[in-house]
Amino acid sequence: MEDPDFQPPPPDDDQIDDYDKILEWCRILADEGVPPYRTAVNYLGSGIWEFKLGRKRISFFDTPGDGTYSEKVRIDDRSLADTDDDYRWFPNLDERVRLGYVFPKLGEKAGQRNIDRCRQVREEDVNHDKR
User: What is the Cα–Cα distance from 30 to 97, expressed in whole angstroms?
Assistant: First the structure.
């Protein structure tokens, strides 16, 4: 029986373009400290964010690189924001931002299983830094 959720991968040229876009988004986040545009990221909870491009989701989180992390959450209270610009909701991240788990968006939300996997990848990553 065929998997009802199966979707064929996009053509190779589309995947290459998406790869270049994600690299550019990472550069913008690194250089400017904010996403390339407001809807390019979502907050998944527990200090984990996602880049979103079409159905592709790439989780990311920040760390000082010493085997620790502190959860940076979406800022919903304007009085707690560092700025009053369009990105006041996006927190100041630590110096290192790490890409985590990659998954396709199959429904309305990321799904608890994907979020749990994002947390697991973060734990593995920061534990590696401790060594």
Answer: 8
Q: Quick check: 71 and 60 in contact, CB under 8 A?
A: no
Q: What is the DSSP letter of 97?
A: E
Closest listed residue to residue 29, CA positions, set 11, 50, 56: 50
3-class secondary structure for 29-80?
HHHHCCCCCHHHEEEEECCEEEEEECCEEEEEEEECCCCCCCCCCCCCCHHH
Q: Hey, is 96 helix, strand or coil?
A: strand
pLDDT at 91: 93
pLDDT for the residue numbered 17: 78
CA quadruple 94, 100, 103, 109: dihedral sign: negative
